[in-house]
Design goal:
four-stranded mixed beta sheet; three-stranded antiparallel beta sheet; about 55% helix; alpha+beta
Length: about 200
């Protein structure tokens, strides 16, 4: 009964949760294929069908493109509608709606460019399995208000300390700086490891 009411609540205005999740899985699978494609091409090159040099060039494009796609699948591009507790935004995989009254988890994602931090995304997951990455000030205000209005008793959503700090809510001192340094180090090590594996296979 409850699930049918939720489906009806979503259906008349928004893309259904099942459809949105299906689109996200397709885009995520495509991004994974791009990231893995250099290794597949190098495996073909090892058989002698194509030269290794011909496999390295696409690797420098397909791998980063897949990694970038991973970060964009759930991220809002433009806020579409905010009605009550429902927040809808357009993403790369289509419209996505989260129920801010049924938040299960909030975490902060940080991405880097050559000049430093390029983007911070608050990834929200609700009880219906929907995920949406919030980037706009309006979405952040709506999320903060929803977290502040949660009842003190009963189950609470899992909200990372870095996410709380980014929302200017009570958190451990310096948590955002620790998060940024940790993610930066993991990003550098991940890129180095990925390129190192490709170069090792090409030898």
């Amino acid at each position: 009964m409850l699930k049918s009411r939720v489906r009806a609540k979503y259906a008349h205005l928004f893309t259904s949760p099942a459809q949105a999740r299906r689109r996200a899985r397709h885009w995520t699978a495509f991004a994974g294929a791009l990231v893995a494609s250099p290794f597949a091409m190098l495996a073909v090159a090892a058989t002698g069908l194509i030269p290794a040099e011909a496999a390295i060039a696409p690797a420098l494009v397909a791998g980063p493109a897949g990694m970038m796609l991973f970060t964009e699948v759930n991220t809002e591009k433009r806020q579409q509608h905010h009605s009550g507790t429902l927040l809808t935004a357009r993403t790369l995989a289509g419209e996505r709606t989260v129920d801010l009254s049924r938040i299960e988890r909030v975490r902060l994602l940080t991405y880097f460019s050559r000049s430093g931090v390029s983007q911070r995304v608050l990834l929200v997951r609700d009880a219906w399995g929907m995920s949406l990455g919030l980037t706009s000030p309006a979405s952040h205000r709506a999320l903060r208000q929803a977290l502040e209005l949660l009842p003190r008793r009963g189950p609470r959503p899992r909200v990372s300390r870095a996410a709380l700090a980014h929302l200017d809510m009570p958190s451990a001192p310096g948590r955002l700086a620790v998060h940024t340094a940790t993610v930066w180090l993991a990003t550098v090590l991940g890129i180095c490891g990925y390129m190192g594996a490709i170069l090792a296979l090409s030898d």
